[in-house]
């Protein structure tokens, strides 16, 4: 069995990728609880990428199981923060909806698919908070208090807060697979680390137990994945 992060031998994760998972801490800002198992770096970032852009359901189930353990007490319903229609069509998956189903299966908390996203919005990864305009979600149903918004990554919280305003309960929480920042601000200082969100990403990467710079590790894993895929293609041609 192959690693669901890098496609090297080892399941669900190879030893290198297992060591590359960096735990995150639950957070709270402006009365909003944020449950999150992993920092968005190393193995966790790769798992999110595999889910979003390669439709890896194995990666989604792994992340969803970790998210279920961080589900807020008293949660009434899971509300996926839907991907834009354009990206759902382009990549063939809605990662928030998939993660919501995994968490629901594990916790028996129902899913309320009530958030309607715009057809498209600009790429937001890596952008500072002042470049992230609120997203015009709309709700197509009534959502009870203690609803939990489910998404893959939280950086500045702009998307989550836009979704929260759309469903309009007096109390809601956020549950994500990884965090790359904080809901307070995308550019404010990060306690104990210093710098903005981009700096936090670099610091987390430098703290990876693999003792390799993230860019180098990422290049090595991509090369391994390419070699593995080449082997699979050759095997199919020879034995197919």
Structure overview:
- Strands 1, 2, 3, 4, 7 and 8 form a 6-stranded mixed sheet that branches. A two-stranded antiparallel ribbon has the order 5-6.
- The longest helix has 26 residues, at 214-239.
- Helices cover 40% and strands 14% of the residues.
- The chain starts with 14 loop residues before the first helix and ends with a helix.
- The model is unreliable at 183-240 (pLDDT under 50).
- It has helices spanning 15-19, 42-54, 57-68, 85-91, 95-107, 158-167, 197-206, 214-239; strands spanning 27-29, 32-35, 38-39, 77-80, 115-116, 138-139, 147-154, 172-179.
- The protein is globular.
- Helix 2 packs across helix 3 (57-68) and helix 3 packs across helix 5.
- With 240 residues, it is α/β, with parallel strands linked by helices.
